[in-house]
Write a structure and sequence with these properties.
This protein has about 90 residues and is mainly alpha-helical. The protein has four helices and no strands. Helix 1 crosses helix 2 and helix 1 packs across helix 3.
Length: about 90
């Protein structure tokens, strides 16, 4: 879950700690998205850019965050019970 804003009236040290937490979260999300792109690229023999566009389009059409759907894609690489949207499981014609 993404951290919100630093509390009103927080000290500089508290704001900096909060910023570090936000950056760590963003980095973790980015790594997960990159892993999902790799999984989709391999499954569908598409370029990383095409795989990202597919992931982003699927997330938008379902009202989900890209990072959340990416987590499902990565999980699906080790768990066959993870259900993904059809457009991420079926190769385009």
């Amino acid at each position: 879950r993404a951290p919100g804003r630093a509390p009103e009236g927080a000290s500089e040290v508290e704001r900096l700690r909060h910023t570090i937490t936000q950056l760590e979260h963003a980095l973790h999300s980015r790594v997960t998205v990159e892993q999902a792109i790799g999984v989709l690229s391999e499954r569908h023999t598409t370029s990383p850019r095409e795989s990202f566009e597919r992931l982003r389009s699927s997330a938008r059409s379902r009202g989900r965050k890209v990072a959340d759907l990416a987590r499902d894609v990565v999980e699906s690489s080790t768990s066959p019970l993870t259900v993904l949207p059809d457009e991420l499981t079926v190769s385009p014609d």
